[in-house]
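INFO batch 0412 | record 1 of 1 | parsing
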Amino acid sequence: MLDIVAQAISSIGNVGTGQTLLFSLTIIIVIAAIFAFISKALKQELIPAYIISGIVIGPLVLGWIKDISIIRSLAEIGIAFLLFTAGLEISTSKIKDRAFPSIFTSIFGMIVIGIITFLIATALHFRSIEAIYLALILGFSSTVLVVKILSDRKELNTLNARIAIGVLLVQDIVAIIALILLNKTFTVSGVSVAILQAILLVLIAILLNKTVLKPLFKFASSSYELLFLAALAFVFFFAALAYALNLSIVIGAFVAGLALSNLPYKLEIESKIKPLRDFFTIIFFVSLGMWLTAFSLKEIWLPFVIFLAIIILVKPLVTAFALRICKYKSRTSIGVGFSIGQLSEFSLVLAILAITTNTVSHTTFNLIILLAIVTMALTPYMMKIDHFLFRKYHSLFKVFKNIPEKKEFQESKLEKKTILLFGCHRMGSILMKGLEKYKDKVIVVDFDPDVIHGLQKQGISAVYGDVISNEILETLPIQNLKIAISTIPKLEDNIFLIKHIKSKNRNIFITVSAEKIHDAIKLYEHGADYVIVPSIISGENALRNIVGMSKKQFKDYKKEQIDYLKKLHRYLY
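INFO prediction complete | emitting tokens
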């Protein structure tokens, strides 16, 4: 069977470029889908499945993809869309608030990791120039990977995510400067010109934001298709502008996202861009596996193990220490640290630059690619077990016990509360509005810093944190509660909450939410007193209003609903 497929693949070289691209994409998507199905059936993460599929169809195993350069170009577009989404999620005020810790943590981490890596590489008999490249390459972490994981988990608005993205973006800026410095055509004036070009790009974005963007996108919002096209045109315009200014297209895409981040239509834009972004991102992770070529395990196993330990253990702990110096809590510092324990897409670009200029050997190049593949594949698991990592490593931070912790939020009094609400965005905000007259009895737990700040301004007791964190749950007066409500859609999280809360208070009335009917039935089986299924409730309400109202009544109702939505938004923010 494989021989037949291989023979078919070999015939691709005889067809045109368009057909070659079509066949290559077909192979990538089909094989990636097969591995994704297997991974999902084994209850594993999808990113490692994409990377493995790239290894299988790449030159190391089957060699089915002939024109890898086209695939890499598509992968770069995927990176651009991911950074555009990251830009949409970050307002300029949020960047300014955490500018110093982001810059300090990034620079401190890269210097420490760079020195450690250089010394070890020299001790392992790497050439000096190779040791310098390894020191740079190991210092960078992947913005693309971390943003994708956080986006998939709907955690881009969390405090940890904002700090991590700030740190990663500073690293990306340093990586771009490093690419200029290591280029053969480098001059001191060239660096100055590149910085001025980057400033010009940002100034153009600011000018457009202040003048034409709001009226332009307001007009486009009348049509979802036009809004999608306008956003797409804006991304590609800034990517092309960055390219014309000799900057990376991914920086242009990120600046485009920042320019649109304060528009009221950013949620609609993000939802429209997401399928396209996901497609190109899959291409990126598959292409990562294709980079790997034949290598001798005997030659690289020792440096691989040592450098792997530096990336997934030393680098996260150095990052966490730097954040603790910036007065962040140990829990936050460790969570952020272990989210950036991988190599960056810019590490790969530096490695390609080095191999094309014969600065590093093929053995060193394969070592870097293997480190990138393994660390990127491990990252989703490291981010999933950060509770365990915190318990394991938090004792190391006792050396900083005299450093005061940064108070991101006010302390809330919880003793006399009787109503607990998990999650106060969207559906939770409606429930909170309905509970307004009982606000002295309510505690809210949420993972979005803006929501916590907004609630505390309203005089509502609010706690920042992950709902499945034992550290957070232990601070709540569960024994005194009469009602607990969860608006979190994840089945596993709600099952955990039901078991934990019922074990401490059997008389409590607990309400949870579910996206699917079979999930709702499972939650009842695990002890939920009531399960909210938003799609059913909204469908019933919509049908009642559509059938029961005249056209004039519905027009008045629509106006009332718009006013109500605006009040809900103001209530939180």
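INFO post-check: The radius of gyration is 26 Å.
INFO record closed
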